[in-house]
Specification:
Blueprint lengths: L6 E7 L8 H17 L3 E7 L1 H5 L9 E5 L7 H19 L3 E4 L11 E6 L3 H4 L6 H17 L2 E4 L2 H11 L6 E3 L15 H7 L7 E5 L9 H9 L7 E5 L5 H11 L6 E4 L4 H10 L2 E4 L8 H8 L4 E4 L2 H7 L4 E3 L4 H13 L1 H15 L4 H21 L1
Parallel strand pairs: 1-2, 1-4, 2-3, 4-5, 5-6, 6-7, 8-9, 8-11, 9-10, 11-12, 12-13
Helix pairs in contact: 1-15, 7-10, 8-9, 8-13, 11-14
């Protein structure tokens, strides 16, 4: 990259409320760190909301300038106002040459090149999971951002295909840039037995799911699958992730099926405890109906955890042959996949090894290199238009 002139890149982080934004926060934080590690020909300015600034995230990382956009992103109305009315002016004032909107939406105007990362098109594939107002707002915001962007980053080939099919985005405008994966050292993990004791998980085989309790994550299917496994063979299912209003519905279904002692809902837990859960887990179950990429699957494989996951294109793209696949709408298939991994230790060990090998093909440094190439293309396209 040293042969290129330095580029001032603005990072649109108006969406990011620390600890509440899931995989998109992971994407933003890990990508920024990788950009700082290997790309000293970039100048980075992050545009953050008040929640991030109040949480001490206004500095982000050494080497990243920050500008606070004076809105609170927990309010969708304020978020939209900040992103579309305030950010263009602040970015222009900062003198950015490329503005990278890192989570599906971004300004449709401004005197700079625009790049937008599209993580998924959930609102198009499953409109029933959105309120009418949210559906309309998302449609307007994403359509404008994608159409007006100089380059569109898709996090998987599956998402690229959906952009072409559902948004009529020209294929030549899309850069496929897969997510990476980072694995902390053993010192960053809580002892697995201590994690089991802390969250009262007992000593049974543990099946782990990491997902926010959102409708498309299809977590009720885990309850249904647990009830299909004979009690004497039933593992403990632990679902860790951001709590939502669906918690009560999932818990009620577990009571109705008599598996309330076999399915645990864990709210936000600190990162060392998450690592301890990975170390304690016999396998991961990931029954999502829809993903743009499938970062939890990749993170589990990178930690040597055998994976059983939905047979959907993004997860096949990420896991390739390392995972056991099942129809996410079939609890019997989910139950059989998990039971098979628990019973057949040879197959579980084979999946573990294959997952580790597959995960080595993904890194945030590679994500950063491809992202910078997209910045360069965007700037060239904008300057020539």
């Amino acid at each position: 990259m040293g042969s290129f002139a330095p580029v001032h890149v603005g990072l649109n982080l108006v969406f990011l409320v620390p600890g509440e934004t899931g995989g998109r926060e992971t994407y933003a934080r890990e990508l920024i760190r990788a950009l700082l590690r290997g790309h000293d020909d970039l100048r980075l300015t992050a545009f953050v909301n008040r929640e991030a600034a109040d949480a001490g995230a206004s500095r982000w990382e050494d080497g990243v300038e920050t500008v606070t956009v004076p809105v609170r992103a927990r309010s969708r109305a304020q978020w939209a106002f900040g992103e579309h009315a305030l950010l263009p002016r602040l970015a222009a004032r900062a003198g950015v040459e490329v503005l990278h909107s890192m989570a599906n939406t971004g300004p449709a105007r401004g005197a700079y090149a625009r790049v937008v990362t599209v993580h998924d098109l959930l609102y198009r594939r499953f409109p029933e999971f959105h309120s009418r107002a949210a559906l309309a707002g998302t449609a307007v915001a994403m359509t404008a951002a994608i159409r007006r962007a100089d380059r569109v980053i898709a996090i998987s080939n599956a998402t690229r295909a959906e952009l072409v099919e559902l948004m009529s985005t020209p294929a030549a405008k899309i850069d496929v840039v897969p997510n990476g994966v980072a694995v902390p050292g053993q010192a960053a993990a809580t002892d697995p037995d201590a994690v089991r004791d802390r969250y009262e998980l007992g000593r049974r085989p543990l099946v782990l799911t990491l997902a926010a309790r959102l409708r498309h994550k299809n977590l009720q299917s885990i309850v249904e699958a647990a009830a299909l496994i004979p009690a004497a063979e039933r593992p403990l299912f632990a679902i860790a992730g951001q709590s939502t209003s669906l918690d009560a519905e999932i818990a009620a279904r577990a009571v109705a099926l008599g598996v309330s002692e076999d399915v645990r809902l864990l709210a936000w837990i600190p990162a060392p405890d998450v690592e301890g859960l990975y170390a304690a887990a016999s396998c991961m179950a990931f029954p999502s109906l829809y993903e743009g990429f499938g970062l939890p699957v990749l993170e589990a494989m990178a930690r040597g955890v055998p994976v059983a996951c939905s047979d959907i294109p993004p997860l096949r793209e990420v896991a390739d042959g390392a995972a056991v696949y099942f129809d996410p709408r079939s609890p019997p298939e989910l139950a059989a996949a998990v039971s098979g991994l628990l019973r057949d230790t040879a197959d579980a060990d084979s999946r573990r090894a294959a997952g580790l090998e597959r995960a080595r093909g993904f890194s945030w440094d590679a994500t950063a290199r491809l992202t910078v190439a997209s910045y360069r293309r965007a700037l060239a396209d904008w300057q020539s238009s």
